[in-house]
Amino acid sequence: MNNELNSYELSRNFINFAFDNPEKISPNHYAIYFFAIEHCNRLGWKTKFGFPTMMACDAVGIKKPQTFIKYFNDLEDWGFIKVVERSKNQYSANIISLISATPKKGEAMDKAMVKHAASKGQSNSPINKQVNNITIEQEIDSSKLLTLFNSLLGKQAKVVNAKTKTQIKQRLKEGYTKEDIVNAIRNASKDPFHIESNYKYLTLEFLTKPEKLDRFVNMGDFKIKTQIL
User: Fold this and answer.
1) Which of 78, 93, 165, 211 could be a cystine partner for 52, CB 3.0 to 4.6 Å?
2) What is the mean pLDDT of residues 85-102?
């Protein structure tokens, strides 16, 4: 990738933007952008590559090309995708680049996480992670978890219930990481059954059960490493 960006940097830029602009973001933005990263990865991190509309629609579960174009154009306007050559119709490919799409990196999310952790007296947690030279605890921030969950699934969940919190703590003790939980939510959002049911049964309590978390963590097709919780 010419040492400019990698999947971690690309996804982190996007998550920072989503955190700062929750009113703009929908699950379709997540799906299209992270599929573009995955596609670029599979092509060996080409500087520019074909991104066919119908292929992307099939991959992320969007039925109408017009719907895809709307969200795709948003990603271009926000600077996450650069269109090198625009497709002539829905059956030809846009030629795009992720290399030059480098929105200004924000630290608002990291600072908010650290501030929240400090306000909750979590500084004695034995497991620590390093984020942009700021040490945070390996413990899930419920508000950030809800932001991610609602953004990806188009839900309006208000709280993380006590049972879910207990399950999350147990999964972390078992060796799962916050990154695993992020990937599980993202991968579950691509599951055909849950898409068909409009995510009716997909809850945080459901996702953090041991057998469900293990299943969705290991859905490799859409697994992209990132740390945001």
Assistant:
1) 93
2) 79
pLDDT tens, residue by residue, 159-218: 899 999 999 988 888 888 888 888 888 888 888 888 888 888 889 999 899 888 888 888
Instruction: Provide the pairing of β-strand 49-52 with 82-85.
Output: unpaired
- Quick one: which of 131, 132, 161, 136 has its CA closest to 146? 161
Torsions phi, psi for 76 (to 5 deg): -70, -45
Instruction: Please name every residue paired with 59 in a beta bridge, in sequence order, or none if there are none.
Output: none
The tokens describing 128, both together, are 């620590």
| Every domain of the chain and the residues it spans | 7-97, 140-222
Q: Classify burial at 32, counting beta carbons within 10 Å of its beta carbon; exposed 0-12, middle 13-18, buried 19 or more.
A: buried
Neighbours of 227 (CB within 10 A): 16
Contact 215, 229 (CB under 8 A): no
Instruction: State the Cα torsion 207-167-129-34 to the nearest 10°.
Output: 0
Quote the pTM value. 0.49
The whole-angstrom separation of Cα 37 and Cα 179 is: 17
**Are 85 and 76 spatial neighbours (Cβ–Cβ below 8 Å)?**
no
Helix 142-153 × helix 7-20 angle, to 10°: 100
Which residue's entry shows tokens 């963590």?
Answer: 217
